[in-house]
Design goal:
Belongs to the D-isomer specific 2-hydroxyacid dehydrogenase family. The protein is an alpha/beta fold. The chain folds into 2 domains: 2-99 and 299-328, Rossmann fold (3-Layer(aba) Sandwich), CATH 3.40.50.720; 101-291, Rossmann fold (3-Layer(aba) Sandwich), CATH 3.40.50. It has helices spanning 13-20, 57-65, 83-89, 101-116, 119-127, 153-164, 178-182, 190-196, 216-221, 239-247, 278-283, 300-319, and strands spanning 2-5, 25-28, 46-49, 70-73, 92-94, 145-149, 168-172, 186-187, 199-202, 227-230, 253-256, 289-291, 326-328.
């Protein structure tokens, strides 16, 4: 079977090639899949997509016309795929339901700690042999309040680490997590969580009801010296409202591993380009903002699990099997 994988990093490629070796023909591309690049998938029965690929109805139609029958996404989120259109076109769609929650939770804490203790600023200074401490003062997380929006596997892992720091736990989700309750987490409405938390970490999927959950009103409720971390989906935060909040001198720090308009920017080298996204450019001018490149999931453990699940999705498709990873089942074969 012919497979084309999009948005493949140099570190990820050997794992993908090993997973499909001797069974399928795999072509790995660094570019993203969208209306401009969809022609590269012609004649490939399987497309292996990433979160920044734009699989709207038009792209899906052209994939189907080119012979694609299965889209298997190397991620849990799938808001970039028009599932009703895929179903109407007879395209099967699968994803990776889960992978190491520790990878993302640990990275969220890496951002929180780096922002709180001014690590990026300190490293920049010491590279110039400036070892002064002015402007580098942080604070203890111990005894303070962590607000966790979304207590699924990743959010729960984040909460366990917070408990290890000796923090008070506030959470919000549709259903309380028993493990988080055992840690002493109190489930509260988002408005109270924003108002009381010293550290707010986002671990929610991007859905219509969660889009811009962190808007101007939510940011206004947050403490002036609160820290905000997002390792989930960029669309959870209204970036324009965040810029206005930071310009007003509010929030002690922000750690962003995701950004609403990251497609076409993240995962690529734009060091020689003019940054045309004014909001992202403005965010990165604030000394208390740390932006990383959607890398929270990027550990050997997590990527290995993602690749293994992707390979299983292909084998399940060939066997006519549906499972927890199936988003759109393949049409019944005559």
């Amino acid at each position: 079977m012919d497979i084309t994988a999009y948005g493949v990093t140099a570190d990820e490629r050997p794992l993908l090639e090993a997973a499909f070796r001797d069974r399928h023909s795999l072509r790995c591309l660094e570019l993203t899949l969208d209306r401009d690049t969809v022609a590269t998938a012609a004649g490939r029965e399987v497309v292996c997509s990433g979160v920044n690929d734009a699989l709207d109805a038009d792209v899906l139609r052209r994939l189907a016309e080119g012979g694609t029958r299965l889209i298997t996404q190397r991620a849990t989120g799938h808001n970039n795929i028009d599932l009703p259109a895929a179903r109407a076109l007879g395209l099967a769609v699968a994803r990776v339901t889960s992978y190491s929650p520790h990878a993302v939770a640990e990275f969220a804490w890496a951002l929180a700690l780096a922002v709180n203790r001014r690590v990026a600023r300190a490293v920049t200074r010491t590279r110039d042999f400036d070892f002064r401490l002015n402007g580098l003062m942080g604070r203890d997380f111990h005894g303070r309040t962590a607000g966790v929006l979304g207590t699924g596997r990743i959010g729960a892992a984040f909460a366990r680490i917070a408990a290890g720091f000796g923090m008070r736990l506030l959470g919000h989700d549709l259903a309380p997590d028993p493990g988080c309750l055992e840690l002493g987490m109190e489930y509260v409405p988002p408005s109270r969580l924003f108002a009381e938390a010293d550290l707010v970490s986002l671990h929610l999927p991007l859905l219509p009801e969660t889009h811009h959950l962190v808007d101007a009103a939510a940011l206004a409720r947050m403490k002036d010296d609160a820290i905000l971390v997002n390792t989930s989906r960029g669309g959870l935060i209204d970036a324009h409202a965040l810029v206005d909040t930071l310009r007003a001198g509010r929030l002690d720090g922000v750690g962003l591993d995701v950004y609403e308009e990251e497609a076409g920017v993240f995962f690529f080298d734009h060091s020689l380009d003019v940054m045309t996204d004014d909001t992202l450019a403005r965010l990165m001018t604030f000394r208390n903002v740390l932006v990383s490149s959607h890398q929270a999931y990027f550990t050997r453990d997590a990527v290995g699990q993602i690749v293994a699940a992707t390979a299983r999705n292909v084998e399940d498709y060939l066997a006519g099997v549906t499972g927890e990873n199936t988003l759109v089942a393949a049409p019944a074969r005559p």
